[in-house]
Design the sequence.
């Protein structure tokens, strides 16, 4: 197994244990992360996103379905099952991830999932009927950014 594949597997094993600090150690100092809800996060901001998500989901279940990597990059397919804290609705999110590496750590991490499918589960009727719209995506991103900013402020104050 290539060391980059091992690193991907370590990242998701830590995620499954809800060990955000171990996840953070898999990231390079200059990491860039992006997904449909949290686009364009850099460095500590990306690490804090995982810290926040892990702390908010006591029933979080992570299943790594598939992982592969070589010297050029890596891929993973994984599933997250959890209760969305804002609505109390159950979500099963299937995600495809792509990775790039530098100095034995993840330096680029892109997660992709069907936003409409996620919104239909997490937001209920609103997501089912309007989850395809850019307005709903913008509202979700704005709320995610606000939540992350509040989390980071509390963390800095502690």
Sequence:
């Amino acid at each position: 197994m290539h060391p980059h594949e091992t690193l991907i597997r370590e990242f998701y094993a830590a995620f499954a244990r809800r060990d955000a600090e171990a996840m953070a150690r898999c990231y390079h100092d200059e990491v860039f992360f992006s997904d449909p809800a949290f686009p364009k996060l850099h460095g500590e901001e990306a690490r804090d996103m995982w810290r926040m998500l892990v702390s908010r989901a006591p029933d979080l279940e992570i299943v790594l379905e598939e992982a592969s990597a070589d010297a050029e990059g890596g891929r993973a397919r994984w599933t997250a099952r959890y209760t969305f804290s804002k609505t109390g609705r159950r979500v099963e999110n299937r995600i495809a991830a792509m990775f790039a590496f530098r100095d034995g750590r993840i330096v680029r991490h892109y997660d992709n999932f069907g936003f409409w499918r996620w919104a239909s589960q997490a937001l209920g009727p609103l997501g089912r009927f309007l989850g395809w719209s850019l307005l709903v995506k913008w509202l979700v991103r704005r709320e995610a950014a606000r939540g992350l900013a509040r989390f980071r402020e509390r963390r800095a104050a502690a």
Q: What stands out?
A: The chain has one domain: 3-114. Helices lie at 3-16, 20-25, 43-56, 115-123, 125-130, 134-157.
